[in-house]
Amino acid sequence: MFSKVAYFSYVVSRSADYCRTSPSSSQGCPLLCKVALGKTHDCFTASTSRCLRQIDGCRVQEV
């Protein structure tokens, strides 16, 4: 939905929707992580540039 970034959720079934290896594949690659959050900013639209500009000091690296 928001491009190639890391998505984190406290519910594995929600994260599973985002872990496809490609749009045509039914296989996925979930990664179990421990995530420490500071200030959060929720983005509810696919306009990532607008959402990312609102996060002070955020660095995003695509994988």
UniProtKB/TrEMBL annotation:
Look up the EC number in the record and give it.
Answer: 2.4.2.-
Q: Which PROSITE patterns match?
A: PARP_CATALYTIC (PS51059)
Keyword Transferase present in the record's keywords: the answer is yes
Pfam family, any one: PARP
- PARP catalytic domain spans which residues? 1-63
Entry's Gene Ontology molecular function annotations = NAD+ poly-ADP-ribosyltransferase activity
What UniProt keywords apply to this chain's record, in alphabetical order? Answer: Glycosyltransferase, NAD, Transferase
Protein known as: Poly [ADP-ribose] polymerase
> Could you tell me which species this protein originates from?
Echinococcus granulosus
* Highest classification ranks of the organism: Eukaryota, Metazoa, Spiralia, Lophotrochozoa, Platyhelminthes
